[in-house]
Amino acid sequence: MSQWRKIFFLSRKDMESYYAKPPLVTWGLLFPAVLLLALYLKDPGTYAAVTPGIIAMTLLFGNTSMAAIVVTFEKRSGTLVRLLLAPLSNRTIILGKAASAALYGLATALVLCLGLALCLGLAVNSLFFFAAGLFLGAAVFSLLGLLASLAVQEVFEAMTLLNFFRFPALFISGVFIPLPEFPAWLIPLATISPLTHVVELLRYGLTGACFFPTPWIPLSVLAVFLVLSLLAAEPLFRCRAYQ
Asked: Residue 187: CB partners within 8 Å, gap ≥ 6?
């Protein structure tokens, strides 16, 4: 069996076992939908300005949380050890786990976007960059969640570790406030957050506006984040998967 088929079946197993549950599906959709509806009712003329940030936030919390919860739970239950004893490479397991979390985040984000398009007339300016923001963001955030789960033992520890990154990132990544309105000293800090580059790619995909001179900059930065996250995941998985 090829590596890609193994990744597919591993991801499908996780989707069926963990993700296709009504509470997870409704939470992944209702929270961002209600937040966007509240912003729209408050000011229908400017809700579109925060839409890219809300979509990116949906990916961030959904992907990191689910990847961390699944891996941490399987470490405690012994399921992960059984996977390690199977004829699967570490990279295959990592990609399978990350892919299932990424698909969960993508599914919720796409349903949210479809609802916005049908109900509020949300239009896409550049499908390529919008899709690139969704796919790269989902992949990077899933791997970050997996890294957090490998560094700790308990689910609450993984959530605590992730929140040290996630909540500050919401305020420095242009989710609610556009980057041009940031003070100059905060811009360098914002540019090292992967969430910033996801927001800017989605913003360009929806509106054609981007803080950076070209949308290829955030796309390239996210590609670098993706490679670095994958390179960091393999040695950490090798050292911590049995613990």
From this structure: 179
